[in-house]
Amino acid sequence: RNEYYMSKAVVSTQSTGEKKEAIRALIAGKGPATAGTTKISKKGGTARLTDTSKYTGSHKERFGADGKGKGLEGREDIIEDDGYVVGYTNKDTYDQAHS
Questions:
Q1: Do 63 and 55 meet the contact criterion of CB atoms below 8 Å apart?
Q2: Residues 19-30: pLDDT tens digits?
Q3: What gap in Å lies between CA 65 and CA 74, rounded to an integer?
Q4: What string of H, E and C letters represents the secondary structure of 27-87?
Q5: What span, in angstroms and rounded, lies between the C-alpha atoms of 26 and 43?
Q6: What is the largest CA-CA distance in the chain?
Q7: pTM of the predicted model, to two decimals?
Q8: What is the DSSP secondary structure assignment for residue 63, as one 8-state letter?
Q9: Cβ-Cβ contacts under 8 Å for 74 (sequence gap 6 or more)
Q10: Cα–Cα distance measured from residue 5 to residue 72, given in angstroms and rounded to the nearest whole number
Q11: What is the CA radius of gyration of the chain?
Q12: Close Cβ partners of 51 (under 8 Å, ≥ 6 residues apart)
């Protein structure tokens, strides 16, 4: 917070180009601040509710074996336009069987 007030005082005396450079130098290499945020709780019910290995149904499909989310692949049914019907297990085996 003190950096903000110090930078505001320094920037107020500079030209526009110098202001931009000063701001870039101030924030370069810094990530978002996490001071005052809530820590992750793993006590009691929270650990049980956030354990993705216990999820069932469509919720189970949204996470990989490592517990990380699959993103869009886990939320939507992605239709493959390859000429095969859904659930066909012998895809791309015709040439192998008939050669």
A1: yes
A2: 788 778 777 777
A3: 12
A4: HCCCCCCCCCCCCCCCCCHHHHHCCHHHCCHHHHCCECCCCCECCHHHHCCCCCCCCCCCC
A5: 38
A6: 80
A7: 0.32
A8: B
A9: 61, 62, 63
A10: 41
A11: 27
A12: 67
Which pair of tokens denotes residue 21? 């450079």
CA end-to-end span of the chain, whole Å? 72
Compute the distance between CA of residue 57 and CA of residue 13 in angstroms, rounded to an integer: 61
Is residue 11 a contact partner of residue 23, using CB atoms and an 8 Å limit? yes
Residue 54 has which token pair?
Answer: 């216990």
Q: What's the rounded Cα separation, in Å, for the pair 71 and 50?
A: 17
* Torsion-angle region of 45 (φ positive above 0: left; ψ -120 to 50: alpha; else: beta): alpha
pLDDT in tens, 29-87: 776 677 777 777 767 777 777 777 888 887 887 888 887 888 877 777 777 777 777 77
Could you tell me the two tokens for 32?
A: 């978002």
Q: Is 67 within 8 Å of 53 (Cβ atoms)?
A: yes
What DSSP designation does 14 have? S
